[in-house]
């Protein structure tokens, strides 16, 4: 037999010894390995032990008929497929349909013509070849999918751990500073994100807080936020670029414009880094409510006055990491006791609504008005985010990270 033959082993099932001898003689002459069975029951036992490539079975046999044998064969659990040709003297459409329904692949009318039998076997070989090729491709696809699943599970496990690391950059979501308070919201659209919020205080009545949005989102952006978390550390003041040590005794807050310039110089100097980020960074004097702010391409912060009015502040500015040696300006904000300052990322204003449009700043004000009038701190931010989830498109969901920093000034 040629090595590339698809059909090698043939099972001949017939209660007539003469008919089997005629068939076996021809099949062996053509190079097939032949196994004989004189009944359907015996043939089924052979198939249970070793499935042949081709079955040639008579229809009419005592005991188990060829049709019943075919049904039993197809019901056997097997990953391989054997081609089944049924010999019959019946030629009616009803009988043919009955045979096909039982699982037969082809029919030959008795007495069997040798040339026609060889042609039908050749046709069966082509079908088996395609079936086995398809099975092999399915096996390869299954193995590939299994490997991809294992890789995905490993990546997913790493991302879960990465999220824990990223969450450690924001050790506390709310903190009181005297009578005032800073609260933080950080909701990545995936396991990890490119937004960062934080706060730090080098001493009484001195406070710094910020909201950062790194370009893009995902692993690369998350790595950048980890780096920025070190630059603006709330625990290690000697590493915090927003602070400087004076008289070798205490730390003081640098001016926001100076901080933006320092971060821009560091990011531009790093070759190979294409990411940039937007930022709103503020320092506050808790004795009088005086806030100094730099806005570097970040959405305009909003002041929520005690009397219920709201106003956007800021002059826009250029994102950090795009242009070297660019100067950054800062603005002065004066808060009265009971006023609040909200910094937020464009995950709010660029959220896609159910009508396909973006929320925009005006829509953000609507969400703020829906919050309970004097909710404070974390409750306000959580309610604000919940309001966002109610109006955004359910089809697209969160397409960007959402973050916010809320400063509530309550007087000295």
UniProtKB/TrEMBL annotation:
Q: Which domain of life is it from?
A: Bacteria
Q: Quote the Pfam families the UniProt record gives.
A: Response_reg, SpoIIE
**Keywords from the UniProt entry:** Hydrolase, Phosphoprotein
Q: Which SUPFAM superfamilies match?
A: CheY-like, PP2C-like
- Domain Response regulatory stretches: 9-125
The record, for PANTHER family, names: STAGE II SPORULATION PROTEIN E, STAGE II SPORULATION PROTEIN E-RELATED
> What protein is this chain from?
SpoIIE family protein phosphatase
User: What are the leading ranks of the lineage?
Assistant: Bacteria, Pseudomonadati, Pseudomonadota, Alphaproteobacteria, Rhodobacterales
């Amino acid at each position: 037999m040629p090595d590339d033959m698809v059909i090698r082993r043939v099972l001949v099932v017939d209660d007539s010894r003469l008919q089997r001898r005629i068939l076996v003689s021809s099949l062996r002459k053509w190079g097939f390995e032949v196994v004989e069975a004189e009944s359907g029951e015996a043939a089924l036992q052979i198939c249970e032990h070793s499935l042949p490539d081709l079955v040639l079975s008579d229809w009419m046999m005592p005991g188990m008929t060829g049709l019943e044998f075919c049904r039993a064969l197809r019901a056997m659990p097997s990953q391989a497929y054997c081609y089944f040709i049924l010999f019959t003297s019946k030629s009616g459409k009803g009988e043919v349909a009955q045979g096909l329904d039982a699982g037969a692949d082809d029919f030959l009318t008795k007495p069997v013509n040798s040339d026609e039998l060889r042609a039908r076997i050749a046709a069966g070989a082509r079908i088996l070849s395609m079936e086995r090729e398809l099975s092999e491709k399915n096996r390869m696809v299954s193995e590939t999918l299994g490997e991809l699943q294992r890789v995905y599970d490993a990546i997913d496990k790493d991302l879960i751990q990465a999220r824990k690391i990223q969450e450690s950059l924001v050790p506390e979501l709310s903190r009181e500073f005297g009578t005032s308070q800073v609260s933080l919201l950080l909701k990545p659209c995936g396991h990890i994100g490119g937004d960062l919020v934080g706060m730090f205080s080098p001493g009484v009545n001195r406070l710094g807080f910020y909201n950062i949005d790194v370009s893009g989102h995902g692993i690369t952006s998350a790595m950048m936020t980890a780096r920025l978390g070190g630059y603006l550390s709330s625990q290690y003041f000697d590493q915090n670029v927003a602070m400087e040590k004076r008289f070798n005794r205490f730390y003081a807050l640098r001016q926001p414009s100076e901080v933006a310039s320092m971060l821009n110089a560091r990011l531009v100097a790093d070759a190979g880094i294409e990411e940039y980020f937007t930022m709103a960074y503020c320092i506050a004097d808790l004795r009088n409510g005086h806030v100094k702010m730099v806005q570097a391409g970040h959405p305009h912060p909003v002041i929520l006055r005690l009397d219920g009015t709201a106003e956007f502040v800021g002059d826009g500015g250029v994102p950090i990491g795009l242009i070297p040696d660019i100067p950054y300006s800062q603005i002065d904000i004066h808060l009265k006791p009971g006023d609040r300052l909200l910094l937020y990322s464009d995950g709010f204003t660029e959220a896609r609504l159910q009508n396909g449009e973006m929320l925009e700043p005006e829509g953000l004000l609507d969400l703020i008005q829906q919050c309970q009038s004097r909710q404070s701190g974390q409750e306000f931010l959580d309610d604000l985010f919940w309001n966002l989830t109610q109006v955004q498109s359910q089809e697209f969901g969160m397409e960007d990270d959402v973050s916010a920093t809320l400063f509530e000034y309550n007087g000295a």
